[in-house]
Amino acid sequence: MQIITKQQATRFILLKQGLIGTYRFTGKAGAYDYIRQAGCIQFDPVDVCGKNAELTLHSRVKGFKKSMLWELLYEDRKLIDYVDKELSIWPIEDWPYFAPFRERSCRMGDTFEGMQELKKEAIAYIKENGPVCSDTLPIEGEIYWHSSMHWSGNWHKKSQAARSVLEQLYTDGELIVHHKNGSRKYYDIAGKYLPAELLNIKSPCRTDLEFISWRVLRRIGAVGLLWDKNSTAFLGIDLKADLRKKVLSDLLADGKIQSVMVEGIKVPFYYLTEDEELMQETLDGSIDLKTRISFIAPLDPLLWDKALILALWNFRYSWEIYTPVEKRKYGYYTLPILYQDRFVGRIEAIPNRKEGVLRVNGLWWEPGIRRTKALNSALEKALSNFAKFNDCKTIVFNPEFNKM
Q: 166, 193, 220 — which closes off a domain?
């Protein structure tokens, strides 16, 4: 088995991700192309300096604007909000593959008393009145219910009936997210927006094993290079060690993935066979290390496996949004700073959109980072782009931190 260095491994991942050298993805078409490549990007409703999905695209799509993702989701209908790695955004063309999710949801929905009647009532109302949210659907009261997206035991909890029935119909596939207003989701009938031929296609995966293998393949493609370990990049896939090894072995035997060893790490790594040209470009040493800085989203595919990031880059990252203030080492919404092929620090930059000011509350450099003119110039450009992305014209630094 071929052995590569850690630097070659990290450069291959960044090349695959479109985070190194010249931008590979541009504009709305580039945003769509990247999501198709990744399979899915995670959605998180928290908007401190852009939502997670928007930040993921901003870091690697030249000229990306938040409106582009909205258009792809709710006007072009090329993308859809649905579960995958937690709540995600993925290409609508993958709808047939997720039939097992929808079938499971329907089975679980049948276990909740009164749910069938509520579903009929909700569907009738939406067909007559159009998109609704839990506040506008006129269904009162509470029921015992738990989302089958995250169903993990034989227990129900009491919840708002309107919200419960909408989420049940959504996971069943009868409704889709029509649009969002902030973090609030508005739902409408799936058949009004998804082509009939897509809704009627059976899953291309004939067995549960085929579906798991397809998802594992997709996650490898999303990160670029994944190891044979219990990885958080596989979150949402029921993948115990024996099954993981079988799936990887089968994908390798089928020629869908290739394996390499990384110096100093005892387990094999895998990448998509279709990325062989990128691997050879990496091994040839012909990668353009353009002086480019990117701020990486907390739930970016690059960070899906933080143990892998630590092993390859020697960079330890923890998202401290849910950490009590007194226990935070850095900040509430701190983003890793990627410069060329290295993680060089982290930043917390919070916009005040009303005043048009991007305030840099914190800027922490990794030990041993030399503050060269090229690095400072790249940071200045990245902050200028980040301010524009957040509708800000001015950048203000916390006096405790210097940009130079």
A: 193
